[in-house]
């Protein structure tokens, strides 16, 4: 796994969340003997921590409140509610954890699958919250491999009016980060790990296999 320093030296624009709890939980997830329910639970827990990182710089405003002791001005989130966009179907495994942390967020879905031969993303569903152009949009998908899916999703969201986006994933490949940075330099990337490379089938090595299958127990 690459460190933040190594990523910078490679010219990759990505924030690596190397918190020990994230790294420990990710190691548990990678193990092939992990059960579907444990895998799903761990992804949800890691998503809490990734959510804190990707929202770290949200704007606050002061609100007048009264505690049982006295009146005060206290910070609350400013602006329109966030929009979380899940890239189906594996994005839904992260979405649950993100919504645990920000339950008021609006939710959208972009349905994409990777053609196994061409590795190109094929869209089959698109539905996002109203006033998407006024919201901070956080796109979630556990895997950034070739980045074809993430690039297609963000391109589609831009066509739909989104202007302020971030992308959060669990494991990424250096090739995918580079491609995503080139396609969407305005969209920051947050990840829990950057692995070695892609194999001939476009899978992340060492990775964790097919995220969707492991979340939903479909293989
Ligand atoms: C997986 C994953 C990403 C994509 C990453 O989805 O959840 O969306 O592959 O690969 P890429 O960066 O090379 O595009 P998949 O296409 O397997 O669909 P699924 O979530 O429905 O299983
Ligand atoms: N999609 C996955 O689910 N896993 C990979 O390693 C690559 C793409």
CATH third-level topology: Rossmann fold
Anisotropy-based shape? globular
What average pLDDT do the residues reach?
97
Give the N-terminus to C-terminus distance in angstroms. Answer: 26 Å
> What about the largest sheet?
8 strands, mixed
Count of domains: 1
Radius of gyration: 18 Å
- Helicity, as a percent range: 25-40%
The tally of strands reads 12
- Helix/strand/pairing class, anyone? alpha/beta
Oligomer: single chain
Q: What is the name of the CATH architecture?
A: 3-Layer(aba) Sandwich
Unreliable segments of 5+ consecutive residues: none
SSE order, one letter for each helix or strand:
HEHHEEEHEEEEHEHEEEH
Q: What small ligands are held by the chains? A: 1-O-pyrophosphono-5-O-phosphono-alpha-D-ribofuranose, uracil
CATH class: Alpha Beta
Number of helical regions: 7
How much beta, percentage-wise?
Answer: 25-35%
């Amino acid at each position: 796994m690459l460190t933040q320093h190594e990523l910078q030296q490679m010219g990759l624009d990505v924030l690596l969340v190397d918190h020990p709890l994230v790294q420990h939980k990710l190691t548990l997830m990678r193990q092939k003997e992990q059960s579907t329910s444990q895998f799903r639970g761990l992804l949800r827990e890691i998503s809490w921590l990734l959510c804190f990182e990707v929202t770290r710089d949200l704007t606050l405003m002061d609100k007048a409140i009264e505690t049982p002791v006295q009146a005060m001005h206290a910070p609350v989130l400013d602006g329109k509610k966030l929009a979380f966009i899940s890239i189906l179907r594996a994005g839904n495994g992260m979405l649950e954890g993100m919504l645990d942390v920000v339950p008021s967020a609006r939710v959208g879905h972009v349905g994409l699958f990777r053609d196994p031969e061409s590795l190109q993303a094929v869209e089959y569903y698109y539905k996002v919250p109203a006033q998407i152009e006024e919201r901070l949009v956080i796109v979630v998908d556990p895997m950034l491999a070739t980045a074809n899916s993430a690039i297609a999703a963000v391109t589609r969201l831009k066509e739909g009016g989104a202007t302020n986006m971030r992308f959060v994933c669990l494991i990424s490949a250096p090739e995918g980060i580079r491609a995503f940075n080139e396609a969407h330099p305005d969209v920051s990337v947050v990840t829990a790990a950057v692995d070695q490379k892609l194999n001939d089938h476009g899978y992340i090595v060492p990775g964790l296999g097919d995220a969707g299958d492991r979340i939903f127990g479909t293989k």
